[in-house]
Write a structure and sequence with these properties.
This protein is α+β, with helices and mostly antiparallel strands and 474 residues long. The protein has 17 helices and 19 strands. The protein has helices spanning 2-12, 21-24, 48-61, 115-124, 141-147, 154-157, 192-196, 230-244, 256-268, 297-310, 323-334, 336-340, 358-372, 401-405, 408-421, 437-443, 446-459, and strands at residues 17-18, 41-43, 65-68, 87-90, 97-101, 106-110, 127-128, 164-170, 176-179, 205-212, 214-215, 219-227, 248-255, 283-291, 316-319, 346-347, 350-352, 377-383, 388-394. Helix 8 (230-244) crosses helix 10 (297-310). It is globular and about 70 Å long.
Length: 474
C-alpha cells in the first residue's frame, strides 16, 4: 500500500506513520502479551481533523482501522489482525484538556488524555473525576469510553457511561459528529452518545468528550476486613449502605490466593507491603467511605464495622490510620492483576451475576473446574458490590503453560455457562474485543445479535471500523 502510506504521511507527518517493526512493538500486542497482531502501519494523528483525514484515506483505500488508546485493555480490542492489513490509529498525541467548568461541573478532554491526568485536572479546580482503575496511569479517556470501563468506584458513581455528557466522534467514513454537549437534559431523539460508549471502537473513533465532575471527597476512611464467606460479603453490602449511605464508594472482594500472590510479588520486588491482618480467613474485603472535608466517614465506618462483626459478617478488620496505610491497603487490591502474571499465562474471566448468586457461582465453579483440571488455581477478586468477579484461572504447577492454555475454551465454557445460568454476564466491564465476541454472540438471542448487527451495518456499512471486535466476523 505505498500510496496510502504516502498519503497518510502527508496528513500526519512522516514521524507519525510507523512501519518499522521495532516501532510497532509497543502497539501490536496487548499489555499481557495475550493478543498479538501485525499492523500495516501505526498512525498517530495530532488533532480531530487529522483523525478524520486519516479515516477518509483508509476508508477510500478499503483498509480497516483499529483505534488504540493506552493499550491496557483486557479483551484484545485494540490489537490489529495478524495479516498486516489493518492500520492502528493511536490517540496518544491527543492529550489536551480543552476546558474545565467548575460551576457546571464538567471537563472537556481529548480522547488520548490519560485517566490520571484527568483526575489531576479535576483536582486543580477542587473537583473529582470518579472513574478509578488500577491502570489509571496509562489508560486513556477514549479507551475508558470505548470499553465503558468500571473499576472500584462504580458502586457510588456508576460506570464510565454515567460520567459522559457529550462526544466528538470520527465516523467510519471520516465524517465528524460533533456531539460535544454539556447538557444534563436533552431528549431530542436517539441517544447517540450512549451508542458509542462501550462500542469498543467498532462504530467510530472518539476524539473528545465532555465528562461530568463530582464534588471532591478529601475525607476518606478505608478498611481491610477478613470475611467468613462469600455470602457474608454479599450480605455486607446492605449493612454498609445502612451506615454509610451514598458515602460507600468501594466494596471489593479478594480471595486468599490473590492476596498471597500480591504479598509474594511485593517481597520479590521489595515493595514493602504487609498483610494487614494475621487471619486464616479465605476471603478478604476492601471498604472505602468518602465524603467532603469534615464528613464523619471514620465514625460511620467504625459503627458499620462494629455492626458487621456483631452480625458475624466480618471476622476481623484493620482500619487505615494514615494516608500511607491507606495506600498500602489499596495496593493489595490493585496489584493483583499484575502479580498474577507471575504464575504464567492466565485464563481471565470478568463475570457478573446478581449479588445474591455470588456464593453459588464461586462454590459450583470451584467443584466443576477442579473436576476438569485437578489442581487448577482460581485467583478470584473483584467488585463484589457490583456482583462482578474476576474469576481468573492459573495453571496447576504440574501442567505447562501451553497445555493449560490449550484447555482455555473448555474451561471458559464452564465459567460462562454457569454465569449465564445464574442470570449473569460474561463480560461485566472489560468488553468483548476479539477474545469474547464469539462467546457473547452464542449466549445472546438471535434477536439481540441481529439488532447489534443492524447498528453496525448502519454506521459502518463497509465494515472497516475495528472489524471482528464485539461482533464476530460473519
Ligand atoms: P485500549 O486498550 O487502547 O483500547 C480498548 C478498546 O477501546 C479497544 O477496542 C480500542 O479499539 C478502543 N478504543 C481505544 N481508544 C478509542 C477511541 N479513542 N475511540 C474509539 N475506540 C477506542 N478495566 C475496568 O473496566 N475496570 C478495572 O478495574 C480495570 N482495572 C485494570 C487494572 C489494570 C492493572 C489493567 C492493566 C487494566 C485494567 N482495566 C480495567 C482494563 C483497561 O484499563 C480498561 O479497559 C481501559 O478502559 C482501557 O483503556 P485504554 O486507553 O488502555 O484502551
Ligand atoms: C481489576 O479489577 O483489577 C481489573 O479489572 C483488572 C483485572 O481483571 O485483573
Ligand atoms: Zn475489575
Amino acid at each position: 500500500m505505498p500510496d496510502l502510506l504516502t498519503d497518510l504521511r502527508s496528513v500526519v507527518g512522516a514521524d507519525h506513520v510507523l512501519t518499522d517493526p521495532a516501532d510497532l512493538a509497543a502497539y501490536d500486542t496487548d499489555w499481557r502479551g495475550a493478543y498479538r497482531g501485525t499492523p500495516l502501519a501505526v498512525v498517530r494523528p495530532g488533532s480531530t481533523a487529522e483523525v478524520a483525514a486519516v479515516v477518509r484515506l483508509t476508508h477510500g483505500a478499503g483498509v480497516a482501522v483499529v483505534p488504540q488508546g493506552g493499550n491496557t485493555g483486557m479483551s484484545g480490542g485494540a490489537v490489529p489482525s495478524d495479516d498486516g492489513s489493518q492500520v492502528v490509529v493511536s490517540l496518544g498525541r491527543m492529550r489536551s484538556v480543552r476546558e474545565t467548568d467548575a460551576v457546571g461541573g464538567t471537563i472537556t478532554v481529548e480522547a488520548g488524555c490519560v485517566l490520571a491526568d484527568v483526575h489531576a485536572a479535576a483536582a486543580e479546580v477542587d473537583r473529582l473525576f470518579p472513574l478509578s482503575l488500577g491502570s489509571e496511569g496509562s489508560c486513556t479517556i477514549g479507551g475508558n469510553i470505548a470499553t465503558n470501563a468500571g473499576g472500584t468506584a462504580v458502586l457510588r458513581y456508576g460506570m464510565m457511561r454515567s460520567q459522559v455528557l457529550g462526544l466528538e466522534v470520527v465516523l467510519p467514513d471520516g465524517r465528524v459528529w460533533d456531539g460535544l454537549r454539556s447538557l444534563r437534559k436533552d431528549n431530542t431523539g436517539y441517544d447517540l452518545t450512549q451508542l458509542f460508549i462501550g462500542a469498543e471502537g467498532t462504530l467510530g473513533i472518539v476524539t473528545a468528550a465532555v465528562l461530568t465532575l463530582q464534588p471532591a471527597t478529601p475525607a476518606r476512611a478505608t478498611a481491610w476486613v477478613a470475611l467468613p464467606s462469600v455470602t457474608a460479603a454479599a450480605s455486607l453490602l446492605p449493612l454498609l449502605r445502612e451506615y454509610a449511605a451514598e458515602r460507600l464508594t468501594t466494596w471489593e472482594l479478594i480471595a486468599r490466593p490473590a492476596l498471597e500472590l500480591v504479598l509474594h510479588s511485593a517481597k520479590e520486588t521489595r515493595a514493602g507491603l504487609q498483610d494487614p491482618l494475621s487471619s486464616d480467613a479465605e476471603w478478604f474485603g476492601l471498604i472505602e467511605l468518602a465524603g467532603p472535608a469534615g464528613a464523619s466517614v471514620d465514625d460511620d465506618l467504625e459503627r458499620a464495622l462494629g455492626a458487621a462483626v456483631e452480625a458475624g459478617l466480618v471476622l476481623d478488620a484493620a482500619v487505615a490510620g494514615s494516608p500511607a496505610q491507606r495506600a498500602g491497603l489499596w495496593s493489595l487490591r490493585e496489584r493483583i492483576s499484575e502479580a498474577q502474571e507471575s504464575l504464567g499465562p492466565t485464563i481471565k474471566h470478568d463475570v457478573s451475576v446478581p449479588i445474591a448468586s455470588l456464593d453459588d457461582l464461586v462454590t459450583r465453579l470451584a467443584a466443576a473446574l477442579e473436576g476438569a483440571v485437578p489442581g487448577i488455581r482460581p485467583v478470584i477478586y473483584g467488585h463484589v458490590g457490583d456482583g462482578n468477579l474476576h474469576y481468573n484461572l492459573s495453571r496447576p504447577e504440574r501442567l505447562d503453560g501451553a497445555a493449560f492454555m490449550g484447555r482455555s475454551d473448555e474451561l471458559s465454557r464452564i465459567v460462562h455457562d454457569l454465569t449465564v445460568e445464574l442470570g449473569g454476564s460474561i463480560s461485566a466491564e472489560h468488553g468483548l474485543g476479539s477474545g469474547k465476541a464469539a462467546a457473547a454472540a452464542a449466549y445472546k438471542s438471535e434477536v439481540e445479535v441481529s439488532l447489534m448487527r443492524a447498528v453496525k451495518q448502519a454506521l459502518d456499512p463497509a465494515g472497516l471500523m475495528n472489524p471482528g471486535k464485539v461482533l464476530p466476523l460473519e
